[in-house]
Amino acid sequence: MQDYYAARAAEYDEVYSKPERQADLRRIERWLPGVLAGRSVLEVACGTGYWTQFFAPCCTRVVAVDCAPETIRIARPRVPPQKVEFIVGDAYSLPAQPELLGAGFAGFWWSHVPRARVAEFLRGFHAALEPGAPVVLLDNRFVPGSSTPISGQDAAGNTYQTRRLSDGTTHRVLKNFPSEQELRALVTPFATGLRYHEWEFFWALEYAAAAP
Q1: pLDDT value of residue 3
Q2: In 49-145, which residue ranges form alpha helices assigned H by DSSP?
């Protein structure tokens, strides 16, 4: 996964140019900052900073973590440097911070978490946040004709896509598309006040992190 996103960095944002997704993107870009405003935010898998650029200006501080230096280099010029600290790190072993952060955001990361590692990810993510901190998970819905087709499934139920980059290379990428029911079942042991939001091409789960 790390090698794939490093190779894809320069063309990553092309996914946000799909014409059919523009209305949804504008709605989410307006909604997301209001959930995180006025707080210090831990962002997991920040990628190229596409989403960071919308909420960082209204937050007190953002710690943005990604495994690929290549995407972080694209993200840096998009955000106020005095507010955002970028860290190359592992989403399953997040870099230690001097204090707990006041909110959490993971955009388009949940779909890449193997089902067997969901609890591990949530425990580590929430351990870095203040108890009760608002959290937003944002990701894709599978929409035939817009989404890359599913090319495989493993014994654990994880689904995969075969993606081709502009250099002609192909990559097998884990990409899960959970239902609302599945999301609620997985997150409820770690959270309170779950609110599910759904657009045509995207979903978001908003909740308060429970104490570790």
Answers
A1: 61
A2: 52-55, 69-75, 118-127
Structure-block tokens of residue 140:
């894709």
Encoded tokens for 180: 């609302």
pLDDT of amino acid 168? 85
What's the gap between Cα 20 and its chain centre? 21
Sheet strand arrangement including 84-88: 84-88, 61-66, 40-44, 103-107, 134-140, 202-209, 191-198
Give this prediction's pTM.
0.94
User: What is the side-by-side order of every strand in the sheet holding 150-153?
Assistant: 150-153, 159-164, 170-174
- CA distances, 179 to each of 80, 142, 205 (Å): 35, 10, 11
The whole-number pLDDT of residue 2 equals 59
What stretches of the chain show up as alpha helix (H) in DSSP? Answer: 2-8, 22-36, 52-55, 69-75, 118-127, 180-187
Helix axes 180-187, 118-127, angle to 10 degrees: 60
Measure CA 65 to chain center: 10
Is pLDDT at 7 greater than 60 in this prediction? Answer: no
Domain annotation for the chain: domains and CATH numbers: 2-209 (3.40.50.150)
- What are the E-state strand segments in the chain? 40-44, 61-66, 84-88, 103-107, 134-140, 150-153, 159-164, 170-174, 191-198, 202-209
Q: What is the mean pLDDT of residues 97-126?
A: 97
Query: Average per-residue pLDDT in the chain?
Result: 94
